Structures are given as C-alpha cells and as structure tokens.
TrEMBL record:
Keyword Transferase listed: yes
Protein name: Alanine--glyoxylate aminotransferase
InterPro entries per UniProt: Aminotrans_V_dom, Aminotrans_V_PyrdxlP_BS, PyrdxlP-dep_Trfase, PyrdxlP-dep_Trfase_major, PyrdxlP-dep_Trfase_small, SP_NH2Trfase/AEP_transaminase
Species whose genome carries this gene: Sulfuricaulis limicola
Residue ranges annotated for the Aminotransferase class V domain, each copy included: 33-337
Keyword entries, A-Z: Aminotransferase, Pyridoxal phosphate, Transferase
Residues carrying N6-(pyridoxal phosphate)lysine: K198
Cofactor(s) of this protein: pyridoxal 5'-phosphate
GO MF annotation terms: alanine-glyoxylate transaminase activity; L-serine-pyruvate transaminase activity
Keyword Nucleus set for record: no
C-alpha cells in the first residue's frame, strides 16, 4: 500500500481537550529546529520558566514543563514525592482522582481514600476527618478541576487543611491552568501539575509542573531512589536548572516553541482577563443550554467554566448525538467517563476556543441535532439567550 501526506479534517474542538490550537502557536511550531543545548534554545527555556511562573502565580524555582503529556506530570509528582509504605490521603470525586490513587499504589504508597460523588467538589470536612484519623499521613492529593465532571474544588481550603496537619499537597490543575483562578503561592500548594493542551491553547505533549521548596526538600531527603529514571526530578533539573546544563533527554524542541508562544499570549492577554473571558463564555453557553431546557450535572457554585457537563435528555443516545455533531458539523464534544458514560456530554470552552463564535456554533448544532432526534427541548431560543448575556466590564 502506498501512503501520502496526512491531511486532518478541520474540526471545531469543544470537548474536554485538546482544545483548538491558536494559529500563532502553530506558526511558532513550524520555525526551524535547533539543538536542545543550543544557547538560543536555553535562553528560550529560561523564558518558559518565567512565563510558567506567571501562569501558576508562583515564585518556585522548580517550575518547568515535563517533556510528556499531563499524565506524565501527574506521575512525576507521585514517583518523586511518594516513598514505599508512605500513607497518602487521596481525594476522589471523579476519574482523575482515581488515577491519582493508582499512581500512589504503583509508587508503593498506601492510599487513604476520601471519596465524594462524581459531580460534587471534594469535601473539606471529609479531608479533615481523614487526616485526624491518619495522623501519620504526610501527603494529600486532590484534583482542583475534575475534567471528567466539570467540578471545581476549593484548592485553597483543602491545602490549608493539609498544611495544618503537616502534609504536602499534590494538585491536578490540568483543566484550570489559564482558564480559572489558580494561585499556587497564595493558596499554599506544594506540587502542582497541568497540561499544555487545554486553556493554554497549545498542542498536547507537555506537562507544566511547579514545586515549592517544601516539596523539593522531601525529594532530596528520600530514603529510596525515584523509581522512574526519565521522571526523576533530581536528573531533570540538571537540564532545566539554571547555570550549566547537563544532557538528560532531547527536548521536544518545536513543541516547546509552541508552549512559549502560548504562554506569551497568555501574558499579553493577562491572567485575570483570561479567567474573565472563560467565565463569560460559560455564562453565555449556560444561558443557551438552559433556554433549550437542558441541565448541568454540577451546581453553579462549583462549576468549572471551561468544562461543561450537561445531562443527556431522556431518550437520546449520546454516542449517536456526538457522532452526528462530528460528522455533520465537524464539531467535537466529549462523552461521559466512568459511571457517567452515556449520561452526560462534556462541552469544553478552553483557551483560544473560549469565544462567542464557538458558543453560538455549538448551540446551533446541538439544537438542530437534538430536535431531529426528537429530544424534549425548546427550539429557537438558545442562541438569543446566549447572545443576551452581557459582556463583563
């Protein structure tokens, strides 16, 4: 068989990620490749570290992108901070909290589970009770923005409870970084990881990560060797640290060009403006969805603006709905995961894709397909409702 160049279809990406990549990022990634120890590239690495410190709102010296997807950022935190036999309190209120538990087990740790229903935030009271019961625990892990449900937990409060009990925190911010308030230093978060493919409008393949001195000290005081060679931060920092760089791996050079451009754009827009833009587009989408007669899984006060979990109307096959949106409108939305499979759809409003054009296009397509599927919805009102949402000052 003879193969030629691959030309992907042009889609509008409004699922849980990846999000639409900004044209400036794609252009940046097409620039000439240089060596990963080239002085010009090393200078750009330093700029990326500073830009990530801004995005995370931190002064942490260890603030870098891991050369792998967000899942590797998660694994980097656990394999570096968790030692065999160590108790870790892990808060599970969705699929990605459950993945944290598996990482703890694979690192040889003992998970102490604090569980909340999917679609509800992590309970501070349950965390407090768990830490009072397990006073020898030294790490608390939780998801700030649970991508599987679109629920946001109170990271500042949870981190405060953990610190009161002398515990470090490992925090998943994959879907929150750049899209909703995240203040690593102010909230006292210790080890935080994210992804490049969501609210940063970059391509998948990099995992922004930051750790404070408390977390770094724990890594340096390990009694056992980090089980992963590639993700051992003692080694990685030889490459990403300041001063003379030691070869560790060949960095994904052009992908890092893209991340640099994405972070520069975030700085140009301003974090607060980005947070407000995501919030406004969510409110517009919400007005249209509710005018149509559909409902959200998560209560408004705990809802993540950039990831909207919407209950599938009775009698509608959500797989058929998603396939028709993809095939007829080139519009990608997400399915429910785990226990919510078949029960919800997930609509992302992330980064470059968080704009009114996408909101209106999504509502138009969703209404047309649902009406054709004889779903019990109100027609002809969604787009006007979204359009009437006032732009914040």
């Amino acid at each position: 068989m003879s193969y030629t160049s691959f030309n992907p279809p042009v889609r509008t990406l409004m699922g849980p990620g990846p999000s639409d990549v900004h044209p400036r990022v794609l252009t940046a990634m097409a620039r000439p490749t240089i060596g990963h120890l080239d002085p010009a590239f090393i200078a750009m690495m330093e700029e990326i570290k500073g830009l990530l410190q801004y995005a995370f709102q931190t002064g942490n010296a260890l603030t870098i992108p891991i050369s792998a997807p967000a899942s590797a950022g998660m694994e980097a935190c656990f394999v570096n901070l968790v030692e065999p036999g160590e108790k870790v309190v892990v808060c599970i209120n969705g699929v990605f909290g459950a993945r944290m538990k598996e990482n703890i087990e694979r690192a040889g740790g003992v998970p102490i589970v604090v569980e909340d229903a999917m679609g509800t935030p992590v309970s501070p009271d349950k965390l407090e009770d768990a830490l009072k019961t397990h006073r020898d625990a030294r790490i608390v892990a939780f998801v700030h923005a649970e991508t599987s449900t679109g629920v946001q937990s109170d990271a500042k409060t949870l981190a405060g409870i953990a610190r009161h009990h002398d515990c470090l925190t490992i925090v998943d911010t994959v879907t929150s970084l750049g899209g909703s308030p995240l203040k690593v230093d102010e909230w006292g978060l210790d080890a935080v990881y994210s992804g490049s493919q969501k609210c940063l409008s970059c391509t998948p393949g990099l995992a922004p990560l930051t750790m404070n001195d408390r977390a770094v000290d724990k890594i340096k005081q390990r009694k056992t060797r980090v089980q992963s060679w590639f993700l051992d931060l003692n080694l990685v920092m030889g490459y990403w640290g300041s001063g003379k760089r030691a070869y560790h791996h060949t960095a994904p050079i052009n992908t890092l060009y893209g991340l640099h451009e994405a972070l520069a754009m975030l700085q140009e827009e301003g974090l607060e403006h980005s947070w407000a833009r995501h919030r406004h587009q969510h409110l517009a989408l919400r007005s249209g969805i509710e005018a149509m007669g559909l409902s959200f899984l998560v209560r408004e006060s705990a809802r993540l603006p950039q990831l909207n979990a919407i209950v599938v109307p009775e009698g509608v096959d959500e797989a058929v709905l998603r396939n028709r949106l993809l095939n007829d409108y080139n519009l990608e939305i997400g399915a429910g995961l785990g226990a919510l499979a078949g029960r919800i759809i997930r609509i992302g409003l992330m980064g470059y894709g968080a704009n009114m054009k996408n909101v209106m296009y999504c509502l138009e397509a969703l209404e047309a397909v649902l009406a054709d599927m004889r779903a019990p919805i109100r027609t002809g009102v969604a787009m006007n409702a979204a359009q009437n949402v006032a732009v914040p000052n």
